[in-house]
Amino acid sequence: MGFFKNVFTLGKYGKLENEIKELQKLVEIYEKASPDFTQIIKLQNRVTDLLQEQRKIASKNLYLAKTIVLKVKKRVGDNQKNVLIDEHFLIKAPKVKSKKNIYNTELNSSFDDVGTDFFDLINTSANMLEKKNGNINEKDLIAHGVMIGVGALLSGFEALVDLNDEVREKRQAVQNKKLK
What we know:
Helix content: over 70%
Structural class: mainly alpha
Largest sheet: none
Order of helices and strands: HHHH
Low-confidence stretches: none
Radius of gyration: 38 Å
Mean pLDDT: 78
């Protein structure tokens, strides 16, 4: 049935299946990388804490050095210079959430309705011919045959349009999930 869906949607159904497979691979990669990314965030936070501690120690050392330099300058009589203090800021990392989405490639559009419509047309035509009480000629049969054929074609065309619309909507949903 997938081959016919692909033919009737001009290859879009196959593209939908490929995009869903690609999205599922991306989800798997994300799920595999997510714990490592979380560990990196934790490691970064620990390194930032250690860096802050080292900066405090360095600041104390600079203060001591500044005090010693000032005492030496007083003795030597040099002009006082300002000591610059290093400033820093923290960047908050985003929290990582993992969601597993399972995508359904089944389409709701069905060609079963085409068969049902076809048999309804045949029943309607048969009922109309029965009402003629045996006065059926070749033109009546041709007219009813054309009516059944055109009705079946229109029903089939409607099913194809519905199938293409559904494939387009599912592809759009997959594309939107990829972008998130």
